[in-house]
Amino acid sequence: MIISNMEIIPGKRIKAHMGLVQGSTVRTKHVGRDIMASLKNIFGGELKGYTELLQDAREEAVRRMKEQAQAVGANAVINVRFSTSSVTQGAAELFAYGTAVVLE
Amino acid sequence: MYDLIVLIILLAVGYIFGRIAEARHYKSILRREQQYRNVVAVASKIPPIGEQLEASILVSGSVVISVDYFKRFLAGLRTLVGGRVVAYESLLDRARREALLRMKKEASKVGANKVFNIKLETSSISKNARGGVGSIEVLAYGTALAPVLQVRL
C-alpha cells in the first residue's frame, strides 16, 4: 500500500477514488514521563519520551487509516494529512486522513 | 524569602543548562544539515514531470522540545511590555530544523534523495495551568521519491 501526501503518484494512474479514509488514536502520557518532562521544563531540551509517544501514536493512526483503506479495496492513500489536537489536559488526539484510491 | 531563593536557583539552573543545551543542539543541527545536504526537501506539490520511475513513500520527523525556566521567565516578563519574544523564537527555530532533519534522515534511510510537498505542523502539547507555552511539538512530513530500484523498505 502506497501512502503519500502528494495529490498524485508519479508514474501511476489513478483508476478510482474510494473516498476519505481516516485513522485516529487518543493517547495520554504516564506519570513517569510527566516527572521527567517537568524536570526538562526547568533545564530545557528535548522531551524524548514525548517524541516517542507521539511518533508511536501517529504510526498507530496511519495503521488504522491503512486498514480502512484496505477495507474499501484501495491500494493507495494519497493526500495524507496529520493533525494533532489536545482533548483534555495531558491527552492528545492524533489524526491521519487521506483519500483512498485504486492505482493501476 | 525561601521562595525568592528557590526562584533564583531555578533561574540560574535554567540559564546555565538551557544555554549549554541550546549551544549543543545548534552545533548538532548544523553538522547534520551538512550531512543531509544531498536530500532535497521542497514544499512544491507536484514533482517535475518526466523523471524516471520512482516510488513514493511518506516520511516524517517530529520532535518535542521544551524551553528552560530562565527563558520562560524572560518571556513572562516580555508580556508586560510586548514585542519580540526572542526566547521562544530560537526554540521554534530549533524544533523546526530538528524535525526537518529527522524527516530527511528517514528519507535517506529508504534510499530517497528528494522530498516533496513538505508540511510543517506545530502544536503546543503541555498546556500547564499557568498557560505557558512550555513545550512544543513540531512535525514535518512529506513524500519521499526514491528510484524504484534503490528503495529500501
Shape of chain B: elongated
- Rg of chain A from C-alpha positions? 17 Å
Reading the helices and strands of chain B in chain order gives HEEHHEE
First-last Cα distance of chain B: 60 Å
Number of helices of chain A: 2
Q: Percent of residues of chain A in helical segments? A: 25-40%
The topology string of helices and strands of chain A comes to EEHEHEE
Query: How would you classify the helix and strand content of chain B by structural class?
Result: alpha+beta
Please name the fourth-level CATH homologous superfamily of chain A. Answer: Hypothetical protein apc22750. Chain B
- Strands of the widest sheet of chain A, in order across it, are 1-4-5-2
Characterization of this structure:
Chain A has helices spanning 31-43, 48-71; strands at residues 2-3, 14-28, 45-46, 76-88, 91-103. Chain A has 104 residues and is α+β, with helices and mostly antiparallel strands. Chain A has one domain: 2-Layer Sandwich (Translation Initiation Factor IF3). Chain A has a 4-stranded mixed sheet with strand order 1-4-5-2. Chain B has 153 residues and is α+β, with helices and mostly antiparallel strands. Chain B has a single domain (2-150), classed as 2-Layer Sandwich (Translation Initiation Factor IF3). Chain B has 3 helices and 4 strands; from the N terminus they run H-E-E-H-H-E-E. In chain B, strands 1-3-4-2 form a 4-stranded mixed sheet. Chain B is elongated. Classes of the chains: A alpha+beta (104), B alpha+beta (153). The A-B interface holds A 2-11, 37, 40-47, 50-51, 54-55, 58, 62, 80-86, 89-90, 92 and B 10, 13-14, 17-18, 21-22, 25, 45-47, 51, 53-58, 60, 62-69, 71-72, 98, 116-117, 119, 121, 123, 125-127, 134-135, 137, 139, 141-143, 145. Strand 3 of chain A pairs antiparallel with strand 2 (54-66) of chain B, so a sheet runs across the interface.
